[in-house]
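User: Quick sanity check before I run a bigger batch. Here is a single chain. Can you write out its predicted 3D structure?
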Amino acid sequence: MACFLVSAAEAVVVTAVKTIEKKHEEKVIETGAEVPEKTRIPFSRKLSWLIYMLVGGAILLAFEHVWHGEVTPWFPFLTAMSDAEETSQMLHEMATVGVSMAALITVVWVGMCVVADRIVKRSDEKKTSENEA
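Assistant: Done. Predicted structure follows.
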């Protein structure tokens, strides 16, 4: 009924974290505190991937809920909020289905980051071995 709100809320939190991380990365580059020895994907870019995945899933789920009449353009917007019993059912769905979907998206994102780091590391090793030869 409102499981898409969990993904949307996580996307908002991750966006705030990304903004902070991007400022930190820019500050490190300005001060020259870190010398980039190897090519790497910035963490802020990886957080962007997570945001895209979460927002995309939330939009798709919101559309599905609108299609089934569970979300309306008038107050209270979520049809489950018109009755106390349905509201508790909605909160239970958000706590189980919504959280598990958001967690699965995050786990897939972690896997993506690991694979991307390995690909970048492999390309760096290939470049250094070509330069040595």
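The helical segments are 4-31, 43-67, 84-132.

User: Great, the batch can go ahead then.
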